[in-house]
């Protein structure tokens, strides 16, 4: 897939600075890396959330009134 991305001049300069100062071939290479990182971060967050839900479900039901829990 090929996309065209419009960005403000200051963002474009920042991207070009990142390309020049790192080991990226071009802006597309840099943006692909950002997308890979975001995908991985998003996947980790979903995994963490699933683990927390499972932990909560496994902990059982509390019969105590919620207002009494924070007194």
Layout of helices and strands, plus pairs?
Blueprint: H1 9-21, H2 27-58, H3 66-69
Helix pairs in contact: 1-2
Structure description:
- This protein is mostly helical and 71 residues long.
- It has helices at 9-21, 27-58, 66-69.
- The chain is built from 3 helices and no strands.
- It is elongated, with a radius of gyration of 22 Å.
Task: List descriptors.
mainly alpha; elongated; 71 residues; 0% strand; 69% helix
Quick overview:
The chain is built from three helices and no strands. With 71 residues, the protein is mainly alpha-helical. Helix 1 (9-21) crosses helix 2.
Structural class: mainly alpha
Radius of gyration using CA atoms only? 22 Å
What's the overall average pLDDT, rounded?
92
What is the element string, with H for helices and E for strands? Answer: HHH
Low-confidence stretches: none
Helix share bin = 55-70%
Which geometry do the CA atoms define? elongated
Distance between the termini: 57 Å
Largest sheet features: none
Number of helices: 3
Instruction: Kindly state the number of beta strands.
Output: 0
Strand content: under 5%
């Amino acid at each position: 897939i090929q996309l065209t991305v419009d960005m403000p001049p200051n963002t474009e300069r920042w991207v070009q600075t990142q390309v020049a100062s790192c080991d990226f071939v071009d802006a597309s290479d840099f943006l692909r890396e950002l997308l890979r990182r975001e995908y991985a971060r998003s996947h980790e967050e979903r995994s963490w959330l699933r683990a927390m839900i499972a932990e909560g479900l496994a902990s059982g039901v509390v019969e105590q009134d919620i207002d009494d829990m924070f007194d």
